[in-house]
Amino acid sequence: MQTVPVDPIERSAIRKVSIRLVPFVALMFFINFLDRTAISFAGPNGMTKDLGLSAAQFGLAAGVFFIGYIVLEIPSNLALHKFGARRWLARIMVSWGIVALLFTWVSSIPGLYTLRFLLGVAEAGFFPGAILFLSMWVPARYRSHILALFYLAQPLTIVIGAPVAALLIEAHGVLGLAGWRVMFFGVAVPAIVIGVVAWFYLADRPSQARWLTPAEKTWLTAELEAEERVRADASTPHSMHAFAALRSGRVWMFALMYFGLIYGLYALAFFLPTIIGGFEGQFGTHFNVFQKGLITAIPYLPAAIALFFWSRNATKHGVRAWHIGVPALIGAASIPVALYMQSPAATVAVITVTACAIFSALPNFWALPARFLSGAAAAAGIALINTIGNLAGFVAPYLTGAVKDATGSYHMPMFVVGALMLVSAGLAFAFCSNSRLQQSGDGAAPAALEPQSHSG
Any idea which fold 8-449 has? Predict the structure, then answer.
């Protein structure tokens, strides 16, 4: 494929966005994912015993987060569009940091449910807001690359966060607190600090970035405005306003596809530490808290590498059905198989394949909706997709825990995960391969599917 020459101003502008903006927003996402999944480390390391939680109650506590998150997702993203990302993302981060800090002193099951619900309320809008924010900084041909760099924060959260959480848990007795309470305290404070920094560090648009030269600002602004005009003039109705996006069948198909991927992600994230904790009874092995943290982290480092190279291919050749469908198929097959392995090493190896599959699909998925939605429709549509997808964040941990309690093992819950990821794979192939999307008259959607070539 012939490489299109890139202007030096274009190259330097994209490089600066990649270096100066994306890592900071990824750091925010790192802290975000760590705070919402901290309960998965606390559960098998004292919290479940101290609060008297069953597997179903633990799953409900993990999942109730998403009720408040879902209710306020779309209003929060529309507020971000109205007030600007800098102020709104900073506000969200400080709010969830304060709520996360309160987990340090939770003393009852109802209190745990309440704080998880409030954490969801506080975090509502952050992830789709960050996706929307980054999408507003680069032209479409660079978007999958930028989103992949951003998404690296999610698997790296576990790679780095699991051992850090384990070290905090082992600091039992600091401030007179149990180890799992020390862990909650330690992961909450950075959210408040970075939230305050974000208020001063972020800029809402390229024209406000002090770290861009006048020529770079002019080029980025002109490119983004030109794309906005193309989307606004497109025949598809959901490029016009928010309510049209919410009625779009295409948006709802994206949402269902995302549901299956997120179900797999959170079933893995919330119960992997518990499954690893069960190795002692299953295989007769023994690991201390820090070793369990390291084992939990193992699947996510290869996942980060797979995410980077898979998304790099998608950026080079254009996002295709198989960039989403193939990983979803691999995840669907591998996640139930993991529990039939005969050793801890084999189990973790298969779970690693699952993690690689899920994280390879996710950033390429998000490269699509951001390319045919604009303005308020983008805010509402992306928020709706994330909202419906994140229903899986509630359903996955609760249903996984309830089925485990009913059957006595995690085998059947993992088959449910596999079935839903299979649905996502089917939707990816059916939707992205639809011949109508290849027609130039179908809004701006073909830009997400056509080959895109650039160097640098």
Answer: Growth Hormone; Chain: A; (1.20.1250)
